[in-house]
Design a protein that fits this description.
The structure holds three protein chains of three kinds.
Chain A lengths: L2 H47 L6 H18 L6 H13 L18 H36 L4 H14 L3 H15 L17 H38 L2 H8 L4 H32 L2 H4 L5 H10 L3 H29 L8
Chain B lengths: L2 E12 L2 E13 L4 E5 L6 H8 L7 E10 L2 E2 L5 H8 L4 E4 L13 H13 L3 H14 L16 H13 L5 E5 L7 H18 L2 E5 L3 H7 L2 E6 L2 E7 H6 L5 H8 L39 H5 L5 E4 L2 E3 L6
Parallel strand pairs in B: 3-8, 3-9, 6-7, 7-8
Antiparallel strand pairs in B: 1-2, 1-4, 4-5, 9-10, 10-12, 11-12
Helix pairs in contact in B: 3-4, 4-5, 5-6
Chain C lengths: L1 H16 L1 H18 L1 H4 L5 H4 L26 E3 L3 E4 L4 E10 L7 E9 L5 E8 L3 E9 L5 E5 L4 H10 L5 H5 L4 E10 L3 H6 L4 E5 L15 H37 L1 H15 L3 H11 L4 H12 L1 H16 L1 H8 L4 H37 L10 H10 L8 H34 L2
Antiparallel strand pairs in C: 1-9, 2-3, 3-8, 4-7, 4-9, 5-6, 5-8
The chains are: A mainly alpha, B alpha/beta, C alpha+beta.
The structure holds adenosine-5'-triphosphate, iron/sulfur cluster and magnesium ion.
Magnesium ion (MG) binds next to helix 1 of chain B.
């Protein structure tokens, strides 16, 4: 593991990001230009309403000039290929353009602001989920590996298989029906109470709102982790080095949490990051059920309002985070496994 | 007697039935002595070694007999006592396929130091010095402590494993085929190393192999196993000096190439080793024995002392 | 041929030993039977074509719980005439009997006949309330040319008649104030001989407070029929996606492994780009911009899912490549395609089967998730769409569990059956691969 390798891997990740944004630009350019043109027309209309004492001829002139000017600024007069390149550059520099109807909490119309505002909420929810599911999965998995075939071990496998086909948002709906509407234990969605509590209560209030979404995600998430850790640990425990460590008189605690865990740790970390990627890949819309104001809910709202620029902005940011996850995965692996030499 | 094994039985309770891997064996070792165990693959050599460490894992179990180390019966010890007082302190083991016995994600130093610190409560720096000392003993440089196992050659790993086995100055080291995977030169080096260490540290060895020519070099006494049973036990003199008494030992010797000796054709033992799920009746060797007669098929021969310190289990020898 | 048969027999023997695998298989067989016997199971035969057509469902109650969960409440039912008598050619009288033994009245009684009403047809209705005598709703002329449909609860004459009985109650409560046998008589006055024949089929649809096996949703749709109709789509989505995906993944992996060199290198770059795209968000945006259809959804999943298995396939492929027999057949001048197919593919087939089964749950969940946010294919019935409708109609807030639970449980069960089968296959296959 050396810094050249790290830098190379990060650069490679960035290049992939650029390439993917380019692909998106090819697919979505036509629609985005349509909304851009509509935006320009609207802007000109508003400007013209501010004009006083002008003849209709001047009006028409003004419109023509402004339109040409704005088309120039947004590169709408150039050939398709160049427009796509401009679109790519804009997207990479977070210039997603203006939302057609959505507004950020600060009343900004920029798609960028709407998405960036949602980002921390998603990160908060999903990293907390992963930390908890990961920890439970790790310990349950190791425990099961010590007694493969035991009742808990078999139930964990079954749980893992069932959770494969269990949509998190459906479980969210069911839990909500039970815990928010039948027994009114948890708030019915959102992230803050109204009025906004102050001081320490502000954070406790967030925790309170996060509880049920978090429980739902953890209830689905930890099975799979435990199952993977268990399989890794079971095969590691059959290795000669484990027998050898035991023969040296080392206590089971050191054998399991030391030698075994350390050896499977690259694979375990991979699992953790893959889980994060899985959340981004499939679990995001789960937020919509709980009205949790994150990236996933932005997809819902943007869809309802047919706000294409926001959708594409959301997709680009999601992709960026996703790629960061993939790169992080590679780096962590190289860092934890001494057998992986820098450069391969 | 440093180690006394009486009527030891180890069975594996598998899905398909009970495997009688070790079925009533007796032997003992004096301090400073090397006992060789030979036999074909699958005859129960490793299992015997593991039983002495009390490390038979599921589905296996020590089904009977006794093992006492320095007069202490191991079955009466708790797992904790076993771990703290016997394993590695009194008896250590160089495992078959030592290549895979080092934790791949620990440096050599870390695994050695961990063992010392756990058993002696010593400071880490001190433990590291001891590790280096033993690495020097086996002819490795000090900087090996910082290396990961994958950065070492097979021979080096083997030496690390031997050094690790010596860390706590045990009385008995069980060497399970310590040289099988190595080339001839390294093999000779390791054998010489083990012989030297034995003298320097006054160790006892159980030396497991299926290569009789190596046993001739290192062992004082020899146990020949067949299908979980001892078929012949005697000093090197008894086995190599004159013609060995048991037909299986004879076959084994005839199939071993000897240095500086030209043979037209190596003998081999016809037939396959028996199925330990359903061992043959009577003498377990009878399906492959050229001398087998009726009694062999019906009655099992006991291990009978035919001369001082030489026992054989064969009807023909009576 | 014999070998293949023996192989399958051997495989089956191992498979039977794995309990969860057998559970999965039995479930799957049940699902397939449901699809085969769908026409017999659907309570409403046009469910598939007219799921989103409100007029098809208008004679059903709204948000009614399943019958078994609402004992003591009137279930939906259809009353047929118990007596049909003719007084003169153009005067037909029909008698209906409704046994009312519930704690609440039905939502409505709808008089219906699928036959165009001829001009100048008159209907008068009388209802005998047990122990209370008979009320009569004055005769009125029926609108002609269309089929007959009169929802009583919304009929002003009926409401007036009820108000006369009890002005403080709503009309249905007023009518069903007594338990017992209600006798309802229709008297049709008309001048059409053919209509006389058709009148035998007049029926009363009782809009119960409970409906069918799984109740109804806010659009009055019969949820049992919806869930049954969704089964085939879940299986199609899951199986088609899984099969295509795994085939792509296997061919990609072995091609990459077999050729090595720059072909391998560039194929692996393609793979890296594909795994770096978050599939679901991308599907959302594509489905939002281009018109969504089930085949587009399946196509997108196929274009991405294969990346999950190609790495393993490639690793196994590299291992197989080392095997001498491939080198041997190369020596005899076999073409590379032949080698790929003849040697690598059969060896990977068991693994591929296990992977296919394990991929089905994800495919079903992805489609359901897209449908949830309204990007599904509106021309078919899927469980995701039923749940999507539940979500926007506030089924959760109103505790309409019969709307939310069954489709979700169906998704979980189908996913589970395939996961169990895949797990069993994997258990059998994995050790074999290890000794390859
Ligand atoms: N975990 C186990 N489960 C079932 N049977 C086992 C197990 N371990 C060992 N055996 C059986 O016990 C018998 C003895 O095995 P052991 O490893 O002691 O042989 P060995 O003499 O050391 O052979 P080798 O020379 O190949 O190392 C074998 O027949 C083997 O099949
Ligand atoms: S007892 Fe019989 S069969 Fe067994 S070794 Fe002796 S002669 Fe051979
Ligand atoms: Mg062995």
């Amino acid at each position: 593991m050396n810094w050249r390798y790290v830098a190379r891997r990060i650069l490679a990740g960035f290049l992939i990001y650029v390439l993917i944004i380019f692909i998106y630009s090819c697919i979505f350019n036509a629609v985005l230009e349509e909304t851009a043109r509509a935006n320009i027309e609207e802007q000109i209309m508003q400007e013209m309403m501010g004009l006083r004492n002008v003849t209709p001829e001047q009006m028409a002139n003004y419109r023509e000039n402004r339109r040409a000017e704005l088309y120039d600024r947004y590169h709408l007069n150039e050939p398709v290929f160049q427009r796509i390149i401009w679109r790519t550059i804009d997207t990479i520099t977070f210039n997603y353009g203006r939302a057609t109807s959505m507004r950020s909490a600060s009343q900004s119309q920029e798609a960028r602001d709407i998405v960036f505002e949602a980002l921390p909420n998603s990160i908060l929810l999903f990293t907390t989920d992963i930390l908890i599911s990961f920890t439970i999965g790790l310990f349950l998995g190791l425990k099961n590996a010590q007694k493969p075939g035991s009742l808990t071990d078999r139930s964990t496998s079954i749980g893992a298989l069932v959770s494969m086909g269990l949509p998190s948002w459906w479980l969210g709906m069911v839990f909500m029906m039970i815990f928010c509407y039948t027994f009114k234990i948890f708030p019915t969605g959102g992230i803050h109470s109204v009025p906004l509590p102050q001081g320490i209560y502000y954070y406790l209030d967030i925790l309170y709102h996060m509880a049920l979404p978090l429980i739902t995600l953890v209830v689905i998430g930890f099975w799979g982790n435990a199952y993977i850790v268990r399989n890794l640990a079971v095969s590691a425990l059959q290795e000669d080095f484990v027998t050898s460590a035991r023969a040296r008189g080392l206590p089971e605690r050191k054998v399991l949490y030391g030698h075994t865990l350390r050896t499977i740790s690259p694979a375990v970390m991979t699992m953790g990051v893959l889980m994060l990627l899985g959340s981004i890949g499939g679990n995001l819309i789960f937020e919509g059920i709980f009205s949790w104001p994150g990236l996933g809910r932005v997809y819902w709202v943007a869809l309802q309002q047919n706000d294409i620029p926001v959708l594409v902005a959301d997709l680009s940011i999601t992709t960026g985070i996703f790629i960061m996850g993939v790169v992080f995965l590679d780096l962590i692996y190289g860092f934890l496994d001494p057998r992986i030499k820098a450069g391969d | 007697m440093m180690l006394d094994v009486k009527d030891l039985r180890v069975y594996f309770y598998t899905r398909n039935g009970v495997v009688h891997a070790v079925d009533g064996i007796n032997f003992g070792i004096k301090k400073g002595e090397t006992l060789g165990i030979v036999g074909e693959s699958g005859c129960g050599k490793t299992t015997t070694g593991m039983a002495i460490m009390n490390m038979i894992s599921r589905p296996g179990k020590i089904a009977g007999g006794s093992i006492s180390i320095d007069g202490r019966e191991i079955s009466s010890l708790t797992e904790t006592a076993m771990r703290k007082e016997i394993r590695w302190k009194k008896v250590s083991m160089v495992f078959q396929g030592a290549m895979n016995c080092l934790t791949p994600t620990y440096t050599v130093g870390k695994q050695m130091v961990e063992t010392i610190v756990y058993h002696t409560r010593m400071e880490e720096e001190e433990a590291l010095e001891i590790a280096k000392k033993y690495l020097a003993h086996v002819g490795l440089k000090e900087d090996v402590v910082r290396r990961y196992p994958h950065e070492l050659s097979g021979g080096m790993k083997q030496r690390v494993v031997i050094a690790t086995a010596l860390l706590l100055e045990p009385e008995l080291v069980i060497c399970d085929e310590p040289t099988t995977a190595l080339d001839v030169i390294v093999q000779a080096q390791i054998i010489n190393l083990l012989k030297r260490l034995k003298k320097e540290l006054n160790l006892s060895y159980i030396f497991i192999t299926h290569d009789l020519s190596i046993e001739a070099e290192v062992a004082d006494r020899l146990v020949v196993m067949y299908a979980g049973k001892i078929v012949e036990l005697g000093t090197n003199e008894h086995i190599y000096g004159k013609e060995p008494m048991h037909p299986y030992t004879q076959k084994l010797l005839a199939s071993t190439p000897r240095l500086r000796e030209k043979v037209d054709e190596l003998d081999f033992i016809p037939g396959t080793p028996p199925d330990l799920l359903n061992p043959p009746s009577g003498c377990r060797f009878h399906p492959r024995c050229p001398y087998a007669f009726d009694r062999c098929r019906e009655e099992e021969p006991d291990l009978i002392e035919i001369e001082e310190g030489h026992r054989v289990a064969c009807w023909r020898v009576r | 041929m014999r070998d293949v048969f023996e192989g399958i027999k051997e495989f089956w023997k191992e498979f039977r030993r794995i309990k969860s695998g057998m559970v999965g298989l039995i479930l799957l067989i049940i699902f397939v039977l449901i699809v085969i016997f769908e026409p017999f199971l659907l309570a409403y035969p046009e469910t598939n074509e007219r799921w989103n057509d409100i007029t098809y469902w208008q004679d059903l109650p709204m948000n009614a719980p399943p019958v078994w969960a609402a004992r003591g409440y009137p279930a939906s039912e259809t009353l047929k005439p118990v007596d049909f008598s003719t007084e003169g050619t153009y005067l037909d009288s029909l008698d209906f009997v409704y046994n009312f033994d519930y704690s609440a009245p039905p939502d409505d009684l709808i008089i219906a006949l699928d036959y165009p009403v001829p001009p100048s047809t008159f209907l008068s209705i009388s209802i005998e309330i047990p122990g209370k005598g008979t009320i009569t709703i004055p005769s009125k002329q029926l609108p002609y040319g269309t089929s007959l449909r009169i929802p009583l609860a919304r009929d002003s004459d009926f409401r007036n008649a009820m108000r006369a009985i009890d002005p403080y109650k709503n009309q249905m409560d007023a009518l069903f104030s007594q338990k017992g046998e209600y006798r309802i008589n229709f008297l049709f006055v008309h001048n059409d001989a053919e209509f006389h024949e058709a009148l035998k089929d007049v029926r009363i649809n009782v809009l119960g407070k409970a409906h069918g096996l799984l109740g109804t949703d806010a659009y009055r749709r019969d949820l049992w029929s919806g869930v049954v109709a969704g089964m085939k789509w879940a299986l199609i989505i899951g199986v088609v996606t899984a099969v295509i995906t795994v085939l792509i993944g296997v061919f990609f992996g072995i091609t990459s492994a077999y050729f090595g060199g720059w072909i391998d290198a560039s194929m692996q770059r393609v793979y890296e780009v594909v795994v770096s795209m978050p599939l679901f968000p991308l599907m959302i945006v594509i489905a939002a911009i281009y018109e969504s259809s089930i085949w587009l959804i399946i196509l997108l999943m196929c274009l991405f899912f294969w990346a999950g298995i190609q790495k393993t396939v490639r690793a196994i492929g590299l291992q197989i490549k080392e095997e001498t027999f491939i080198e041997a057949s190369e020596g005899f001048g076999a073409s590379s395609r032949w080698i790929l197919l003849k040697h690598m593919f059969p060896l990977l087939l068991p693994y591929a089967l296990a992977e296919m089964a394990l991929m089905v749950p994800s495919a079903i969940v992805y489609e359901a998730s897209l449908s949830l946010i309204g990007l599904g294919d509106s021309t078919i019935v899927t469980w995701g769409q039923i749940l999507g409708a539940a979500q926007i109609s506030g089924a959760v807030i109103n505790n309409l569990w019969w709307w939310v639970l069954p489709p979700g449980i169906a998704i979980v069960l189908v996913g589970m059956s395939f996961a169990f089968i895949g797990f069993a296959l994997d258990t059998i296959v994995a050790p074999r691969l290890r000794t390859l």
